[in-house]
Amino acid sequence: MERTIRQRNNVKISGDGTKTIIFAHGFGCDQNMWRWTAPAFEKDYRVVLFDYVGSGQSDISKYDKVKYDSLQGYVQDVLDICDDLQLEDAVFVGHSVSAMIGMMAAMERPESFDKLIMIGPSPCYINKPPYFGGFEKEELHGLIDLLDKNYIGWAKGFAAMVMANEERPSLAQELMASICSTDPVIARQFAIATFFSDYRHELQKVSVPALIIQCSDDMIAPAAVGEYVHQHIPNSTLKVMDAAGHCPHLSHPEKTVELIREYLEASL
Description:
The chain is of the alpha/beta class and 268 residues long. It has one domain: Alpha/Beta hydrolase fold, catalytic domain (Rossmann fold, 3-Layer(aba) Sandwich), CATH 3.40.50. Helices cover 41% and strands 16% of the residues. It has a seven-stranded mixed sheet with strand order 1-3-2-4-5-6-7, with helices on both faces. Helix 8 links the parallel strand 6 and strand 7. Helix 4 (137-149) packs antiparallel against helix 7 (184-195) and helix 5 (151-163) crosses helix 6 (169-180). It is globular. The two termini are 33 Å apart. The mean pLDDT is 96.
């Protein structure tokens, strides 16, 4: 099993600590997106990086369109890795959709997780008054329609919206390249599973303590969403970063590391 799971999800392990911290990437990304944050924890933790099936350097032959028709397939990826590494009381750092994936994994297997770190989480991207998710349903259907018609053009526009920080175009260029390296069929299915999901009803069931890191100017997960998640997860802490974009681990890695470290050290 070890060989199969670790190869399937391109699992990489580093660090000198006994406690495990696992980093999970968002939609259109891969584990390389953690290169400026994860190494900061290698002195004190066993650091685990991986790619979801269909992303990065994962084994694409293991992709199953039925399994990954919803986020539950990606939750199973996480649980398989937990089983393979025999994880107990691990810290799970999830970016964007991985915040929800990690949340559901922790609900299913609470003994495997000690803390959840949620970077730009969103339980629902669609505006459903009085809830404000940031998008009208028609806007998201338009995004999927553009993906179907012009994948490269869609990737360019989407990457720019996600990254913001226009004065640093290399950030959006990197995300665009990452998205374009993904099979369009897989990207489309992951996008639908992500942007049309609604996990608001699950938040109150979370028993694992959580840190929510929210950027002050984020078009994908607006400030109201971070506040909503904080209000509905029982044992949660919200930290708002004065930053633009949806990927602070790339645009503001030092501050991201600082917030995670402060939270973990305070809970020792």
